[in-house]
Amino acid sequence: MRRLHNRVNNDELKHRMMASDEARTTLSFYQYALIDDPAGFRDEFYLGLSQFQTYGRIYVAKEGINGQVSVPDAQLEAFRDYLYCIPFLSGIRLNFAVDDDGKSFYKLKIKVREKLWQMG
Description:
The protein is of the alpha+beta class and 120 residues long. The protein has a single domain, classed as 2-Layer Sandwich (Alpha-Beta Plaits), CATH 3.30.70.100. The protein is built from three helices and five strands. It is globular.
């Protein structure tokens, strides 16, 4: 099975991101939905998003999903198509960052939480 987390040193990932001239777009999304198996969904979603060089922070819980991500501009349409092929994400509103240099994230983290909106 493929690795479902990044194994490269954080400092190296940050250095790579800052040195890259690849145009990226930062966006956010959330959707309330019943996710029966958040851990299983997380693993499938991680593999799916990795093919588009998606970086960011996404939380998955039984009640839905909340994410902030960065996607290469060249992959943006394919990323959107991938999201829309997931039934509860079909047509999801994507909120694009206004002031964005595309260097907002340097790796993909998808965490399973008990609740999406936790205090503290």
